[in-house]
What we know:
Blueprint: H1 4-9, H2 11-20, H3 27-54, H4 59-87, E1 108-113, H5 126-133, E2 136-137, H6 138-145, E3 151-152, H7 154-171, H8 174-183, E4 194-196, E5 201-202, H9 204-209, E6 220-221, E7 228-229, H10 233-237, E8 245-247, E9 253-262, E10 281-291, H11 296-314, E11 318-322, E12 334-342, E13 347-356, H12 360-365, E14 368-370, E15 376-378, E16 380-387, H13 390-398, E17 406-407, H14 413-416, E18 420-421
Parallel strand pairs: 4-9, 8-14
Antiparallel strand pairs: 1-11, 2-3, 5-7, 6-7, 9-10, 10-16, 11-12, 12-13, 13-16, 14-15, 17-18
Helix pairs in contact: 3-4, 5-13
Amino acid sequence: MLDIKFIRENSEKVKKACQDKNIQLNIDEILALDTKRRSLIVSSENLKAKQRKLGKDNIDEARKIKEEFLQAAKTLQETEIQLHQLLVQVPNIPLADVPVGKTEAENQVIKMVGKKPIFDFTPKNHWELAQGLDLIDKERATKVTGARFAYLKGDLVKLQWALMHFGVEVLSSEKTLAKIARAAKLQVSTKPFVPVLPPLMIKTGPYDAMDRLEPREERYKIEGEDLWLQGSAEHVLGTMHMQETFEEAELPVRYVGYATSFRKEAGTYGKDTEGIIRMHQFDKLEMESLTTAENSLDEHYFMVAIQEYLMTQLGLPYQVVLKCTADIGKPNARGIDIDVWLPGQDKYRETHTADYMTDYQARRLQTKVKRKTGTTELVHTNDATAFSQRPLIAILENYQQKDGSVKVPKVLQKYTGFKIIKNGRK
């Protein structure tokens, strides 16, 4: 959420942010409610002062003032509720380098890395490869749970565990993080990310304060409970320190959380029905960090550098995409996607996202930092994908062999214990 004082002083900038993010919202109505609220506060304080002066004398006048005060208090409460309902709809302000666009088609590719593999055969997509190697069973999953679920089996499970193990090892190594920071020419802390297995459910209040509950049609609600299944690990990592205040020396606070996540994928009927690209349930390793304001943008760049390092180590060709205003989301000031090349589909598909939120989330979460000067201010938040299951798809398609087998990226072999996935592997 934005500070009402900022909106008051930068109304045109806020209006433009709404327009650029395709959000229909009347900022003038918010400003009018804010003016009314401040006027009611003054009126209420004046009535209180009158009550104190009258004391026990002039009972009729005191009763009249009390009734006026109660009415003013009621109107103030109603006005504050109306104002809050509108304030939470105001988007974060995009950074200057975020391209203005109405759809994701206007995102900008800013970097391309790696060479696309060349095959002397027609490459298969990951679903065809998985079928031949008996790695994915969606037919039986459909009997048990319905569409967009799958059983992952055999070496694909071991490959996923290897991927996640590798990701945690990188993120918890100060030496590796220092190497990534140097290569990216960033002056950032090399403090490791703390591995976390978070709760997979979250209450409505924290979820809403995190500004990740919407769109609700994408979320799974637990019937009869004030609980939702989280849609990504950062939803339960970013809320972890709500209503807490850090000492400045404690920051940055960095977590890497592993969670099985759930999304309804509403509105995607008939889209990506083959394989495991768009599932209701998926496993994800996610980065979350809390920093001071002056370090937060470099933290965003650092997370993107980590993502690129992970993809480069896997030997996968990818592109870095600067997301446009309409695609970054309401709480974001900036957003980056990394898209991997999938030869079986002959296209790039997104595997990673990095979200820069400034203090937008922290304002409602009330997560703060006490500076060395003694002042207290809101922290800034960042989140970014380390690994989801989509890199598994990319490995299958980019490392496939003519006989239908799949090589394992060298960096993962020490975790899998094998170098190739094939039928009847011993």
